[in-house]
Amino acid sequence: MAETMAAVPNDVMERLRAAIDDNFNDQVAFLQKMVQFRSLRGEEEPLQQWLAAQFEKRGYKVDQFSLADVDLMSHPKAAPMDTIPLEGSRQVVATLDGGGKGRSLILQGHVDVVPEGPVDLWADAPFEAIVRDGWMIGRGAQDMKAGVSAMIFALDAIKRAGFAPDGRIHLETVTEEESTGNGALSTLMRGYTADACLIPEPTGHTLSRAQVGAIWFRLRVRGTPVHVAYSETGTSAILSAMHLVRAFQDYTAELNARAISNKWFGAIKNPIKFNVGIIKGGDWASSTPAWCEVDCRLGLLPGSTPAEAMKGIEQCLADAQKNDSFLSSNPAELIWSGFQADPSVCEPGSAAEAALAAIHERVFEKPLEDRMSTAVNDTRYYAVDYGIPALCYGPYGVGPHAFDERVDLDSVRKTTLSIALFVAQWCGLKAL
Amino acid sequence: MAETMAAVPNDVMERLRAAIDDNFNDQVAFLQKMVQFRSLRGEEEPLQQWLAAQFEKRGYKVDQFSLADVDLMSHPKAAPMDTIPLEGSRQVVATLDGGGKGRSLILQGHVDVVPEGPVDLWADAPFEAIVRDGWMIGRGAQDMKAGVSAMIFALDAIKRAGFAPDGRIHLETVTEEESTGNGALSTLMRGYTADACLIPEPTGHTLSRAQVGAIWFRLRVRGTPVHVAYSETGTSAILSAMHLVRAFQDYTAELNARAISNKWFGAIKNPIKFNVGIIKGGDWASSTPAWCEVDCRLGLLPGSTPAEAMKGIEQCLADAQKNDSFLSSNPAELIWSGFQADPSVCEPGSAAEAALAAIHERVFEKPLEDRMSTAVNDTRYYAVDYGIPALCYGPYGVGPHAFDERVDLDSVRKTTLSIALFVAQWCGLKAL
């Protein structure tokens, strides 16, 4: 596939740029509307329905389906869904196919967002999508509704400039990126493949060269509750959980010590992150707690598999319990609660990357840099499981998963141009 | 008050014993009914209404009032109620006053129970009050509905045996014993005092000689959430909370090292208990948690005051935060969330204790033993604040605050006789 491609002519680039600029107020309003949908996990459906309607309005062929409509759990890479019903997790694939001979492309973005956390810690309301000083503020504005707006408005700009892509394009909005990846996987199982894939996650205009994998697990610890007056005869599930958390912190330090020899992440300090994201336990201040649950996330590096990482987690837990007088006979329950995500590398040298690099340099007037990502994104399924070159490249923002998450709107504009030009370069354009 | 009392005649004792035995099936049914009310904190009202009706049926003068009906928060010993509304916390005081010249007595028990915890960890349903092998099983069966049934049926037995107490009796069922003590305090503020008080908590037929105090506090810790990919730039509220818990564990060890010189508790190993009873934090496995709350309980010994203990807690927290790079500039919020309970000593030598000791020896054929309690009970208000000799003495059971809590029904029967005889001894009886 690495044949030389003719560069997109300058005048086409300028027509696309003008179309994006002309339409940018609408794009910002569109992005605001998206952010105003509080599309937490399991609550994405209203936004997906709205997006499907937007795609239909544009004349795209729209396929809406849920995770229950594919035989999801038969796939070896499907991750456990915890308590989220498959039926309610809707995917949208809009197809533009003018029957041209150009290469095909998947443009994909996720619409699920992580919880906003305590609202009083935000300076602005997290779902109002306030625009101030060139930023749009809100949960999901950066991660990754800005990128979704960019891929949609890139195609709009191509049409507005008087062109159509010369290859088949699947424009996809998916769920579950923040928890399992099953949304992306389901689109592939539904049959949507292409010659390349671009996912405009907020990479700050870098190419995500390599990314970690991640495992989600829940520890369900029991205790023997007694009145605090006799606390030495009971065992606190909360203190047992703290013991296990410390064991996983130590284990993570060991993993990171070994990581210095990793081909991709050797230069990154502590690339493997262990996170205790949620904790809940106990019912009464004066009773030793009978139960405690902790939701954890542990990364893994290219060169290792989720199965190996899960085995390591099991071993760490077993070791931590072995010498504990209570846990050795009352082991914590280990629940695989989401991500079983492969690490993934965007192998250098693909034609898709060459096309993106050329385009990026024209838009930003500097070379495309890559970066190692200590987070997970959906490109792994395309690259690892379906052999589709998959690029993760998108706008700049600050505070993914944090308070006061925001995206730089000028960056969104430039990313939209990058994507439009990438479509032109990769698929080719034909005049309308 | 330590004048010599004539012993209750043997034939009176036997008539009381027979009356209790004759009525014991009804007492067990009554206790079952009480246990079947799930009278968790804030949910005691249906049980209190039912009890008030039972007292009215017996012809007692019944006063029902809520914590909002006394000027509770004006009292220096009132403890914070957290989110529980004063209006919904109902107290019941039934008075029997035949105008006799005997000593007056308060018989008091609490009807609030602690949460049952995960039901799957119980062998039997926690609110069915199953009777098996001489035990009644259920949350609150032991702590302390058995004692409440004993004080009610002791008075029933006196009547059934053809007598009436010769002194005024207040039969009281209160709330809030497990969280603040405000129920007991409100009865005193309402004007109910007497020459002695007996609280039949499940002491296993011992006299609670000295008891600790307790402080409840909540630590509300914040964090700076970020995507786990950048966890080194955020701070986990859960890990910060764990840091503070460890600091309080160390502080408790210091307090216990000093406790060996305590007059009452010097011989008890680690009499000061620190408990983390409830923990909640975070919203997402892959975000560093922005918030974590822990509900804690710390004991204090006779010779110290709640104010001193609270100052110690503040100092421990300040010290733990001082050297932490995040907490030093983002200190946890410290919330006084319930108990600010005085430690209390049942001073030896009272006439009330002498009466109880004499009675106990006749019922159980062995001397009354005392014990040091590392838990709190309501006697402290009577003893510390109102100068009323207050005895804590009641039945035997296992598992207060634990799974499979149960009370020994034969012990309930004997305790009922002890209480009936104590009323006879303390107040005197007159023939009906």
Overview of the molecule:
2 copies of one chain form a homodimer. Chain A is α+β, with helices and mostly antiparallel strands. Chain A contains 10 helices and 19 strands. Chain A has helices at 10-22, 24-36, 45-57, 141-160, 182-189, 237-258, 306-322, 351-364, 379-386, 409-427; strands at residues 61-66, 90-96, 105-110, 130-132, 135-137, 163-165, 169-174, 197-199, 207-211, 213-222, 274-281, 291-300, 333-341, 344-345, 370-373, 390-392, 397-398, 406-408, 429-431. A 6-stranded mixed β-sheet of chain A has the order 1-2-7-3-8-16, with helices on both faces. In chain A, strand 4 (130-132) and strand 5 form a beta hairpin. In chain A, helix 1 (10-22) crosses helix 4 (141-160), helix 2 (24-36) runs antiparallel to helix 4 (141-160) and helix 4 (141-160) crosses helix 10. The two termini of chain A are 27 Å apart. At the A-B interface, strand 10, helix 6, strand 11, strand 12 and strand 13 of A face strand 10, helix 6, strand 11, strand 12 and strand 13 of B.
